[in-house]
């Protein structure tokens, strides 16, 4: 694996590599993606293999702009409303796939009739997508189930296979994945909490439903949402400010912080949820690397992006 700086020459080179079915780790505003040509069965199958990802778990297609995106989906009013507010940005919409499109191979959507699409708000991703002149599917650039990378170095240190090129965009700004919303029915359904809070979404669409994997009446298909995910290599213990010997503490805010405890990183001393979100994966990586036997996590308020943080932590703590 090699890290390349985002120069014009390197972007032209990487777009050529993508056309030859190579994979490229690409920075976005959320996390790094493992990008490949969306229309190529070969590239898509090497993405699944590189991540050890189950083939039933579909990928997100990324676009340089809304005109390209619209060619691959059956757009509707709900999508129009959400896109005009949040695209480009950390929003992924699940829509009916345009049955006529040749830009997306069937493995990319795990054979589903729907497709997840997004336009990253990130200059380097935009430049690569524009130069490639097509859609790139890009799941987070981690081994399935593990922490998502927010720096090029975290990918370099990972056990991802079959990846030659990492395009360096520094540390990602949001630090948490996009919010995923299904807009195939009348009422939009949040499938995954993410960098845009549900309050901001509701302000645009009014009625909003939530995917619940235990609710058999929901017709929504969300293959990736039931899986244990986002886990460091050691176990995670939630909602405590009382770390034990051998544990590392992921703290939040400036109240009830244990004194004389050295194995500690604070997500946000100012108790800012946005700051905590942007540090979450990075600090979990760092505590994991320090060799903690377990990571204890202080409570995080369940408001706005706090819901996405708690979603990731709960799934990381699943056994
Ligand atoms: O911020 C992000 O969204 C990052 C960056 C790289 O763009 N990407 C990302 O991709 O998080 P990934 O593959 O790690 O997560 C995508 C999620 C999966 O849980 C998958 O099941 C779901 O999106 N998904 C994809 N297509 C879907 C579809 N047609 N219907 C329902 N869920 C879908
Ligand atoms: Mg992921």
Helix content: 25-40%
The number of helical elements comes to 9
Which structural category fits the helices and strands? alpha/beta
Beta-strand percentage? 15-25%
- Overall body shape: globular
Q: Give me the strand/helix succession.
A: EHEEHEHEHEEHEHEEEHEEEEHEH
Number of strands: 16
If you average the pLDDT, what whole number results?
95
Radius of gyration: 19 Å
Residue runs with pLDDT of under 50 for 5 or more positions: none
Ligand kinds: threonylcarbamoyladenylate, magnesium ion
**What is the distance, rounded to the nearest whole angstrom, between the alpha carbons of the first and last residues?**
32 Å
**Biggest beta-sheet profile:** 12 strands, mixed
Write structural notes for this entry.
With 319 residues, the protein is α/β, with parallel strands linked by helices. The protein is 29% helix and 18% strand. Strands 1, 2, 3, 4, 5, 6, 7, 8, 9, 10, 11 and 12 form a 12-stranded mixed beta sheet that branches. Strands 13-16-14-15 form a 4-stranded parallel beta sheet. Helix 7 (198-205) links the parallel strand 11 and strand 12. The longest helix is centred in the C-terminal third of the chain and has 17 residues, at 273-289. The model has no long low-confidence stretch (mean pLDDT 95). The chain binds threonylcarbamoyladenylate and magnesium ion. Threonylcarbamoyladenylate (TXA) is lined by residues 28, 30-31, 33, 57-60, 90, 92, 94, 109, 112, 114-116, 118, 138-140, 177-178, 180, 191, 221-224.
């Amino acid at each position: 694996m090699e890290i390349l700086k985002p120069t014009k020459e390197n972007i032209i080179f990487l777009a050529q590599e993508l056309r030859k079915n190579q994979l490229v780790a690409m920075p976005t505003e959320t996390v790094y993606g493992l990008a490949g040509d969306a229309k190529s069965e070969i590239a898509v199958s090497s993405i699944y293999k590189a991540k050890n990802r189950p083939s039933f778990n579909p990928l997100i297609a990324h676009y340089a702009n809304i005109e390209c995106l619209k060619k691959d989906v059956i757009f509707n009013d709900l999508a129009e409303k959400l896109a005009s507010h949040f695209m480009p940005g950390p929003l992924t919409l699940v829509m009916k796939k345009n049955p006529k499109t040749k830009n997306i191979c069937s493995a990319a959507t795990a054979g589903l009739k729907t497709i997840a699409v997004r336009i990253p708000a990130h200059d380097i991703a935009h430049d690569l997508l524009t130069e490639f002149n097509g859609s790139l599917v890009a799941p987070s650039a981690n081994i399935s189930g593990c922490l998502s990378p927010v720096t090029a170095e975290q990918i370099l240190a990972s056990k991802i296979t079959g990846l030659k090129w990492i395009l360096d965009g520094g540390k990602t700004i949001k630090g948490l994945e996009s919010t995923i919303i299904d807009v195939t029915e009348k009422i939009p359904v949040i499938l995954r909490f993410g960098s845009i809070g549900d309050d901001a979404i509701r302000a645009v669409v009014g009625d909003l439903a939530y995917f619940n994997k235990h609710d058999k009446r929901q017709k929504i298909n969300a293959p990736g949402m039931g899986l244990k995910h986002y886990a460091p290599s050691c176990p995670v213990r939630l909602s405590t400010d009382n770390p034990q010997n051998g544990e590392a503490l992921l703290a939040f805010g400036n109240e009830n912080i244990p004194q004389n405890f050295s194995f500690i990183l604070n997500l946000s001393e100012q108790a800012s949820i946005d700051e905590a979100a942007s540090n979450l994966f990075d600090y979990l990586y760092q505590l994991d690397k320090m060799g903690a036997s377990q990571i204890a996590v202080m409570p995080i308020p369940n408001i706005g992006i706090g819901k996405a943080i708690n979603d990731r932590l709960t799934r990381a703590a699943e056994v």
